[in-house]
Design goal:
Helix content is about 25%, strand content about 35%. It is α/β, with parallel strands linked by helices.
């Protein structure tokens, strides 16, 4: 791993820590002001445009859905400009989980996220408590099988 790829991974981990803490200011600080977060079809208001809109969205998820996220895998380019991860979105208040991947693009200093493109492991099926790939051995591959912590209480 190069210093630049480590810097990219550290930024992703900082972003996820801010998501899990519902830390609006820290979330905004992880993005360029004009950053864009793209999602598969079906999410109202998507894509989220701008650092504030992205932060607002994730704080809403923690407050409303009890969201917590785990990073399962990270692969960062040697130049630190792009990375891809696998994640799990635990929606603890509604008893659901969603798995997927995201492609990241960073600014030239690799200290802010410019763009995220999210891809879900499967179409969201509201009849399933945990959306996942068919017959994929998540536990056997070392993926988290429950959230690592409780979401913070937000008034």
């Amino acid at each position: 791993m190069t210093d630049l790829s480590q810097k990219a991974e550290a930024l992703i981990r900082r972003y996820f820590a801010a998501c899990n803490a519902a830390d609006h200011a820290e979330l905004v600080a992880c993005f360029t002001p004009d950053a864009v977060h793209y999602f598969p079809p079906g999410l109202p208001g998507a894509p989220w445009r701008g650092a504030k809109a992205i932060a607002d969205g994730w704080v809403w998820c923690v407050k409303t859905l009890g969201s917590q996220w785990t990073i399962e895998k990270v692969l960062a380019g040697a130049d630190g400009k792009e990375a891809v991860i696998e994640w799990t979105h635990w929606k603890t208040a509604v008893g659901e989980a969603l798995r997927g991947d995201e492609w990241y693009i960073f600014d030239d200093k690799i200290d802010r996220i410019v763009e995220i493109r999210a891809y879900y492991a499967s179409p969201v099926d509201k009849s399933q408590p945990i959306n996942k790939l068919h017959d994929f051995d998540y536990a056997g591959r070392g993926f988290a099988m429950a959230p690592q912590s409780e979401p913070p209480k937000i008034d």
